[in-house]
Amino acid sequence: MRKIPLLAAAAAGYVLGTKAGRERYEQIAAGARRVAGNPRVQDATARAQETVKDAVTTAASSAADKARRQASIQPAP
C-alpha cells in the first residue's frame, strides 16, 4: 500500500517533466555545462577532492592504528 503514493508522485513528475520537453532539458544541461566549465568551479572542485582525499587517508590511518592497538591488547583465544 505504501508504494502507491510513491508511484503516483513518480508518474506526476514524469508527466510534468515531459511537458517541459527536450528543449528545456537542453537549456538546463547547457547551463550545467557552463557552470562546470567555469575555472573557479573547477578550482573549488579540485580543492574539495584534495581535502576529501586527505581526510580519507587520515581516517584510514587512524582506524588502522586503533585496530593494531586493539589487537595487541586483546588476549589470544
Describe this protein's structure.
By secondary structure, this protein is mostly helical. 91% of the residues lie in helices and 0% in strands. The protein contains 2 helices and no strands. The protein starts with a helix and ends with a helix. This is YtxH domain-containing protein. It comes from Nocardioides anomalus. Residues 56-77 are annotated as: Disordered.
> How many DSSP helices?
2
Q: Which oligomeric state applies?
A: single chain
Mean pLDDT over the full residue set: 84
Number of domains: 2
- What percent of residues are in strands? under 5%
Could you name the ranges where pLDDT drops below 50 across 5 or more consecutive residues?
Answer: none
Q: Biggest sheet, open or closed, and with what strands and sense?
A: none
- Radius of gyration over alpha carbons? 24 Å
Question: Key terms for this structure?
Answer:
77 residues; mainly alpha; 2 domains; 2 helices; 91% helix; flat
Task: List the SSEs and their pairings.
Layout: H1 3-37, H2 39-73
Region (Disordered): 56-77
Protein name: YtxH domain-containing protein
